[in-house]
Amino acid sequence: MESTETNRQNQNVIELSNTSVLSTGINESNTTHGEIHITRDSNDEAEGEDGLLPITKSQFLMLNVALCVGIFMVTLDVIILATAIPTITHEFHSLGDVGWYGSAYLLTQTAFQPTFGKVYNYFNTKWTLLMGIMVFEIGSILCAAATSSPMLICGRAVAGFGAAAIFSGGVNIITMIFPLKHRAPFLGLMGAMIGMAMIVAPPLGGILTDRFSWRWCFWINLPCGGLMVIIIVLFLNQTAQISFGLSWMERIIALDPASALLLVSCITALLISLQWGGERYPWSHPKVLACIITAGILLVAFYAFQSWKGESAMIPTRLLRQRSILGSSLAACFLSMAFHVHSYYLPIYLQAVKGLTAEQSGIQILPYQVTNSLFSLGVGVLVGIVGWYPPFLWLGTLAFVVGSVLFYKLDVDSTVAAVVGYQIIAGAGVGTAINIPHIAVQAISSKKDVSSANAIVFFFHALGGAVGIGIAQNIFSISLQENLPLTVPDMDISAIIDDSSANIRNLIPAEYLAAVLRVYCSSIAKAFIPPIVTASLAFRKRFPLSSHRELASFAYSPSKQISIIDLWKNSTLPLNVSMQS
């Protein structure tokens, strides 16, 4: 029922082409009476892009502002919390819930991203996007006003649901306004916002936490969301509702909410088992086993349901059975697991072990995010030149493995130079490799499958982040429980574990402090073991990843002059969206 181009418009949220924002494809000489006319050619018509909304210059400018603000806001919300977590756990005495603060947001965003791709097919774009913004703002308010850790986690889940709507809506609006050949610059602008948010988030979170309150990490979403609402209401034309002749109930069924609910339930059961197992209960406890068995049953049910749905499934199993697509998806998942663990536990190391403030730790982890973003963009250009991507995956994951091992070796006496140097190595590695799975599926997939294949890789990318944080938190908490009693036998260990990692200097007597810091450092090091494992798995040279030399729509040849604009246009690279990613 849905055409290939409709799928491209609504599902392929990861195809944020890193295209130069200087080349907009808009000819000022073709503007009259304040209205922008974008020249269309026969290729545009061949893509079936009739019915594009006419926009004025003011609409063009304001809608781009709204979309940039929205993408920046939902990406910022993924990472900004990392530097604030020690302060939050001190207030709520909830060190055991650290994994949920990141996973809850990523879980709902991952599960409902494909659903919202379909929502924009069947319901009015303007009001659907406004609804998504309002849901995100409600989630932000719940987080900012949270009086307990469970309330904060619920707020994060609600915000993730709204983020899925905003991300899909941003791409959808661009496809409504611009023909295919003119979309890349504006998608590239969205990609730039993602990179900027990743760099700004750690220091901004630290500054807000130290100088105001960690709650301002969420309050700042309100004016951003309010600006988006005003612009969308005033400048986005009312769009016709596409019902395809279906009733409301038929449209609801077509959204496939059952798949999203099965997936959310499955991952939630898995994360609960990771939180309980070995920490609150033994792994053999009936409650833990029940969660694991439930997760397994729901996973089987989800796969069976996707197989039954066929081409209309959230994750078409036909594509998953292709070894190159499965290999690319697993590589994206493994890399994302490692990246998110580093992003959350480096600030804990800096604040708990090194005694830095939230603001100082946010500044000190900038090298990781900056090198990640720069190498991600640079490799996109290089892949466009050479037209061959496997070496970048191997070299990137090798550097990432080395960086992950170096993180594991961080100790109480590590110097600032060592911490920064390790981040540069790891950031360069993950930045080099993180987008290769997305490129690979575009190179090997047929035109009708490229959107679905990209959506699958994005799905596994985000899923890896949610699960990786949960695994690391389980390892970290169990290590603390096992080793702290041996270090401070006369103290209430539960009070230390439940409090903030950044507050241990106020809890521990001076004669025990050095030993406790070594325990914390050792526990964080153990949390860095999963990134070593997953990065190593992604490095495997026999990973079932296609090695096509001809990439996308062109490969480099000396007789063919290619500008930097062309390279970016043809390298359809998402930035690290975890959402990232």
From TrEMBL:
Location in or out of the cell: Membrane
Top-level lineage group: Eukaryota
One GO CC annotation: plasma membrane
Coiled-coil boundaries: none
Cross-referenced Pfam families: MFS_1
UniProt GO MF annotations: transmembrane transporter activity
Keywords of the record: Membrane, Transmembrane, Transmembrane helix
Domain Major facilitator superfamily (MFS) profile: 63-533
Membrane-topology descriptor: Multi-pass membrane protein
Transmembrane segments annotated in the record for this chain: 61-85, 127-146, 158-178, 184-204, 216-237, 257-276, 288-305, 325-345, 365-386, 415-436, 456-476
PROSITE patterns recorded: MFS
InterPro entries for the chain: MFS, MFS_dom, MFS_trans_sf
Record protein name field: MFS gliotoxin efflux transporter GliA
